Amino acid sequence: MVIKVCGMREAENIRAVEELGVQWLGLIFWSKSSRYVAMPPAYLPTRAKRIGVFVDAPIDEVMQHVTDYGLHAVQLHGKESPEYVRECKNAQCAIIKAFNIATPADLKQTEPYEGLVDYFLFDTKGPSVGGNGTQFDWTVLNAYHGTTPFLLSGGIGPDDVPRIRSFSHPQQAGIDLNSRFELAPGLKDVNAITRFLKELQAP
Predict the structure, then answer these.
(1) Model-level pTM greater than 0.90?
(2) 3-class SS at 172?
(3) Residue 98 near residue 85, CB atoms below 8 Å
């Protein structure tokens, strides 16, 4: 299972979380986010994959960040069209398309992106495009019959290991952790992540 920790910003915090064996680390390049990365941190992950999060950004801006930050994947968290995604593929990195989910009907919006992106990310529908810190009913995903693997997101917290263990879907690739593991926006609680991973990985 891929573990992605999103909303990283502080150099030493990035280093500490990477040392836990987390596979993907997310940097948010949306200026309205409280976790916005305006300048490259003094340390960027060398073992974990670097994921850049964008919300309806100009294509050239995405491409520039891919180059400047050495991104392995871009996560599109806005209303980006399939045509936009096709242009993004020129960046030669993986593409994750995020969708805000509340009901089975919301899964229909994934259909135009099948075969275009590498992963979907299913987040909670809320007042913001992401980072709402709330969960949705994962049983809704029983209605997802696509072939694109996905990551679970939306308010996953330190006490959710039993819920994660009890959830099963053939296309689930991993989970996305963010606000409920923070000491402050953009600053992750390394001890909380350590305990969570230890419990999740226990036999």
Answers:
(1) yes
(2) strand
(3) no
Burial class (CB within 10 angstroms; exposed 0-12, middle 13-18, buried 19+) of 6:
buried
Residue 60, both tokens: 């050239």
Q: State the DSSP string of 8-55.
A: ---HHHHHHHHTTT-SEEEEE--TTSTTB--S--S---SSSEEEEEES
**Spatial contact of 135 and 114, defined as CB atoms under 8 Å apart:** no
Query: Cβ contacts of residue 124 below 8 Å, gap of 6+?
Result: 100, 101, 102, 132, 134, 135, 136, 153, 154, 155
What does each C-alpha distance from 69 to 90, 93, 100, 165 come to in angstroms? 16, 12, 26, 34
The model's pLDDT over 22-73, given as tens digits with 9 standing for 90+, comes to 999 999 999 999 999 999 999 999 999 999 999 999 999 999 999 999 999 9
- Tokens 């399939």 label which residue? 82
Instruction: Tell me which residue has tokens 């596979």.
Output: 23
